[in-house]
Amino acid sequence: MIRKNRINGQNGRNGMTITPLMAVMAVTVVCLCCMSIISNSHSIENAMTDCAMLALSNTPNNDKNKVDNYDVLLQTKHDISFPKTCHGKGRVMAASTMTPKVPKAKAIELAQGGFKRIGQGSGKVDLVGAIAMKLSKMQHEFGIFGTVAELGVHHGRFTSCLFITARESEKLVVADIFEQQEKNVDKSGKGNKEKFIQSLSVYGLQLSDLHEMYIGSTDELPYDWSEQKEFEQFRLISVDAGHTAILTRRDMMLAACNLLEGGIVALDDTFHSNWFGVTEGMIQYTTTAVEPHQLYPFLYCDGKMLFTNDRKYHTRYYDALMDEPLLKPILHTDALKWGGSSEFVMNGVNFLRCKREDADVKEIWTSVIY
User: Fold this and answer.
1) Relative orientation angle of helices 20-35 and 276-286, to the nearest 10 degrees
2) What is the topology classification, in CATH, of domain 79-368?
3) 77 contacts 215 by C-beta, under 8 angstroms
4) Peptide bond before 329: cis, by omega within 30 degrees of 0?
5) Can you tell me where the transmembrane regions are (predicted)?
6) Which of 121, 152, 234, 273 could be disulfide-bonded to 241 (CB atoms 3.0-4.6 Å)?
7) Where are the domains of the chain?
């Protein structure tokens, strides 16, 4: 099948240069304007998501050569440049084996509703969890085997959807402040270590199955975390820790610095009406990051934006999702408002958006578990 090129240029329309600050302001202004005219039948969160999608589908891309002074505006204690200890886009894989770490019967039980025995975080995980399983199978077929991780696990519901994708050779890593709530500067969640450990038993794992459980703020983790703790770089990682712009940007950098080539980052609570900092931090990161640490979005689903660090794999994941018979009907390339003229674009690439109301989630799960 012949497909159009989904990689766009880096300059704005009519030669206009869009700085990262302007991009953030554009999203904010469009969102606020749209909020005043959204139908009363919409929830605030849906309204904000729709408006953010509108902004991204019409905001020109930035010129990365024009952002030298932008980092001064962040006023953060963190070094915003990529440190020498950042070695992302690695190619040292875990051993290739298709034997699952979690028995298939346990994975099916979890997927068919068992995850509800684990305390819920801020959003639904079943549909995006099934898609994570589909993407994981693709990664393994491509020969990508590495660590599966989550920053900010709460009680472990989405963690379970990630961990059942792991193969026997792949390590499991988590990080959360848990009871150290004095470090929870934005009050974005209240994880519980004991409840998280209990959640592992729902799908047949225990604490000893984790290679690393870091307790503390993720902004204290080193950029060469995988090297220091001797685990392969991430194949799949969820970022759901601090929800300020600074912490989000820092966590995205941490993920990118420890991400295999073709690895996937799932950033939670993007475009969430209660957590504007996540969206701001995401835009700050994608408009200032450089190769090989840049991240390219290919799917927005249930509040999570999924990225990869390689344009080649971006195209592969995007196309494969659209080629999946059970997924294609629920994936949209544009806002469906102006006859396909408002494609979802960010950071120079197109991404898809899922529509949960059209999905038979259990059937999708059944088709993708392996």
Assistant:
1) 150
2) Rossmann fold (3.40.50)
3) no
4) no
5) 21-38
6) 152
7) 13-73, 79-368
